[in-house]
Amino acid sequence: MRSRKVWLVILAVLCFPSINTAQETDAKQKPRPNVILIVIDDLGWADLGCYGSTFHKTPQLDQLAREGLRFTNAYASCPVCSPTRAAIMTGKWPARLNLTDWLPGRGDLPAQKLLRPKIEQQLPLAEVTIAERLREAGYRTASIGKWHLGGAGFGPEIQGFELNIAGDAGGSPPGFFAPFVRETAKGKAGGRNLKGLEEAPAGSYLTDLLTDAAVNFIEKNSREPFFLYLPHYTVHIPLQAKEELIKKYPADPTFRGKQNSSVYAAMLESLDDGIGRIRQKLEDLKLTENTLVIFTSDNGGLATLEGPHTPATSNAPLREGKGYLYEGGVRVPLLMHYPRGIKAGISSAPISSIDLVPTILEFCDVPLKDNVDGQSIAAFLPTAEPVPERDLFWHYPHYSNQGGKPGSAIRSGRWKLIEFFEDGRRELFDLTSDMRESHNLISQHPQVAEELANKLSVWREAVGAKMMEPNPNYKPNPQAADGSVTMPAKWATVHGETLRYEPLPHKNTLGFWTNAKDWASFEFELNEPGTYEVELLVGCGNGSGGSEVLVAVGKQMLKFTVEATGGFQNFVPRKIGQVKLDKPGRHTLEIRPQTKSGPAVMDVREVRLLPVK
Question: Exposed, middle or buried by CB within 10 Å (0-12, 13-18, 19+), for 345?
Answer without folding.
Answer: exposed
